[in-house]
Amino acid sequence: MIWTNVILTEPARELLIGATKSNHLTFAEQPKDVLAVGAPDSRLEDAEIVFGQPDPEFLERSQKLRWVHLSSAGYSRYDNQKFREALRAKGAVMTNSSSVFDEPCAEHVMAWLLADARQLYPAYDNQRDQHSWPQNRLRANVRLLADQKILIVGYGAIGTQLVQLLTPYHVSIVGYRRTPQSESPIPIVSQEDLPDALANADHVVNILPESESTFGFFNAARFAQMKPGCRYYSIGRGPTTDQKALQETLNSNHLFAAYLDVTDPEPLQPDHFLWHTKNCFITPHMSGGHVNESERLVQHFIENLARYDSKKPLLDKIV
Fold it and tell me: Domain limits at 30?
């Protein structure tokens, strides 16, 4: 039995039905948004395979569960010792959909980098409000990406895609991650070397996942370590940024600009101070989105389902 509560388009739904004809497929109530946990559903306890955003408590009670495939890249609500031990006790594994979202998220950061380099946001603000001709001021802030130094904090799948996109621009890229990789296409700095990396970077890209160790990771002290005029980009999870400290750093002109796709809370209330913070540009957690997102989610699950049936290693395995 396969249980799913993924938000699907009709073509994606038909694709999933067609690929799982030999299984008993159960559709549950869809959550209100792609990251929301699904409503409690007793049928979860009868499922061998779960695809979507299931309630962790129901998964822990299940004796039949063997595989959980999350429809998101993030998995913070499942990332705790109690849940991991519950999965291991029943011989179950967990995968996510990181491979679906790494490319669009990397392109989102790339768009920000180019928009910042060409000063497109200030030019748009001028067109919308002032209708002046600030040619000299904007030209003075326009820069080439060539020879810029970029630090990717939380270097993983998205960072790997971003490095590929940046290849033609001849930039210098350094990564940081908690667990060092034996092989990496870019230099990886340790926690001890992070302050120096922050001090040398023209752009700091935050792709950290949400966990106890990353909550408020970018705080006043780390913003102070960044070089004057640095640009900050956050595309991982909102709680990894101390937003009040970010506002103060932007207001002091120490940072040139901040680009946020994730905030805390989400959605961000209309009267939240970030909307009015100088040189803070916000997109509403849309970086992973793309027109055929639903179909690609299903295709990724189907590929893993074939691997599961043939007892091959699963893609994007977490536990």
Answer: 2-96+291-309
